Amino acid sequence: MRIDLHTHSTASDGTDTPAELVLGAAAAGLDVVALTDHDTTRGHAEAIAALPEGLTLVTGAELSCRIDGVSLHLLAYLFDEDEPELLRERELVRDDRVPRAQAMVAKLQELGVPIEWHQVARIAGEGSVGRPHIATALVELGVVPSVSDAFTPQWIADGGRAHITKHELDPFKAIRLVKAAGGVTVFAHPLAVKRGNTVPEAAMADLAAYGLDGIEVDHMDHDEATRAHLRGLAADLGLLATGSSDYHGSRKTCRLGDYTTDPEIYGEITRRATGAFPVPGTGGRPT
């Protein structure tokens, strides 16, 4: 089995629609794909409607969190999407995205960048606006050569000249809410140092003790030494070690299935989940 547990669609900051994403996952030879858009589950219905036979969809979201001033992303799988407290928190995070992005555009303008809000809004479309949309605008303007080059201290990385913080969940609260909604939690790309400051290992241990289920080990932003270190850390803390592409369509260079999760780990994730269940494809058609 080939299992990719971290992807994004146009419901947040990917460039593939949810339907295109699941069809692309099948074409890439995946057996299981998780749709984990930022702080939203809006893409799930379209993905399910288009799900081809032979591909299983894991529903999820990537939750924006912050601990001791450091941003972290928490992958939440197979939770009850209608659980009211978790839904309310996701909406708070999502609602703060537009004013935060507008403030970042204003900062960039102060730095002499000829960026306009309507340009970012056009790029985001119906998705939850975020930094990748601003980064894409900077590429269009010729300010940076690639999206990843925008995520530096010079521009929009955490603490960068044009960075603005947004409403983010306390990760301990997020773990509690996801667990209460029957879901499973995995810390996404925990040592992606080129994105900015990372969470100390002591805090990872605290999160594990509180109920975190796993950490994402195999990821494009982790080199071989980092992956080996994280695999050992996961073993020491009793955490599941996952792998995934963090696919964003054409916005990033990674491809669906570039990194995958071991079938036994996937089986344990599905065993722990009680809020929702993986959806098997039945040969749906895009809507």
List the helices and strands and how they pair.
Elements: E1 3-4, H1 18-27, E2 32-35, H2 44-50, E3 56-67, E4 70-77, H3 84-95, H4 97-110, H5 117-124, H6 131-140, H7 147-150, H8 171-180, E5 184-187, H9 201-210, E6 214-218, H10 224-237, E7 240-243, H11 263-272, E8 279-280
Parallel strand pairs: 1-2, 2-3, 5-6, 6-7
Antiparallel strand pairs: 3-4, 3-8, 4-5
Radius of gyration: 18 Å
Tally of helical segments:
11
Give the uncertain stretches in residue-range form: none
Mean pLDDT: 94
Shape: globular
Provide a descriptive summary of the structure in words.
With 287 residues, the protein is an alpha/beta fold. Helix 9 links the parallel strand 5 and strand 6 (214-218). The chain starts with a strand and ends in a 7-residue tail after the last strand. The protein is globular and about 50 Å long. The model has no long low-confidence stretch (mean pLDDT 94). It has 11 helices and 8 strands. The chain has helices spanning 18-27, 44-50, 84-95, 97-110, 117-124, 131-140, 147-150, 171-180, 201-210, 224-237, 263-272; strands spanning 3-4, 32-35, 56-67, 70-77, 184-187, 214-218, 240-243, 279-280. Strands 1, 2, 3, 4, 5, 6, 7 and 8 form an 8-stranded mixed β-sheet that branches.
List its traits:
287 residues; alpha/beta; 8 strands; globular
Short overview:
With 287 residues, the protein is α/β, with parallel strands linked by helices. The protein is built from eleven helices and eight strands.
